[in-house]
Design goal:
9 helices, DNA-binding transcription factor activity, mainly alpha
Length: about 200
């Protein structure tokens, strides 16, 4: 096993466990077992638990940044362009549900002793998206709160889903629930940003 593949196995296992159990709930031993390695090998590749968490969050950020930069680069200055950007974000979260889960855990006070991840990662992505969308819709709308609303709704849907009439949870892996969620989110964003005629 090469160093890179060992590190990636560890990061993959740690990402899953931090997303499912949180930083505070996932031990280094559990991560090592999930990666099929021993604790010494984990320490060799990534250091201690804090170093591992920081590496997981950095990798998650780089993936999200790459996706958002590509989506913003394709943004056309019209309502359809804004809604395509929204769809790309939802698609990213569906493809990488562990990333919304990591942030939701953090926002619920997980890893509270690790400061400034929001300042390091979240702020720059918010500025990227709000700047791009703000250039399309104008200054009379609170674009930042609309973008935050999208983040909160999407992360909540990815992590918890919605309850159907029978009380069963429908999540992102349910195609009908995803279609309904996406349609609702598009209408909500179009209304909040005053994108006239954008959604039928």
């Amino acid at each position: 096993m090469t160093s890179d593949s060992g590190r990636e196995r560890i990061l993959d296992a740690a990402t899953r466990l931090f997303a499912d159990l949180g930083y505070d709930g996932a031990s280094t031993r559990l991560i090592a077992e999930a990666a099929g390695l021993n604790i010494a090998t984990v320490a060799y590749h990534v250091g201690g638990k804090r170093d591992l968490y920081l590496a997981v969050m950095e990798r998650a950020h780089q993936r999200e940044r790459s996706a958002l930069e590509a989506a913003v680069a394709e943004l056309t200055p019209d309502a359809d362009g804004v809604l395509r950007l929204l769809d790309r974000y939802v698609d990213f979260c569906v493809a990488h549900p562990e990333i919304p889960a990591l942030w939701m855990r953090r926002w619920l006070s997980d890893a509270a002793d690790i400061a400034d991840l929001e300042g390091r990662y979240v702020r720059s992505l918010m500025d990227l998206v709000t700047g791009a969308v703000g250039g399309v819709v104008g200054g009379e709308v609170d674009v930042e709160y609309v973008v935050w609303s999208v983040v909160w709704c999407t992360h909540g849907f990815c992590r918890g889903g919605v309850l159907d009439s029978a009380g069963r949870r429908r999540r992102i892996d349910d195609p009908a629930a995803l279609i309904r969620f996406r349609s609702h989110l598009r209408r909500m964003v179009a209304a909040a940003l005053r994108l006239d005629g954008a959604v039928e």
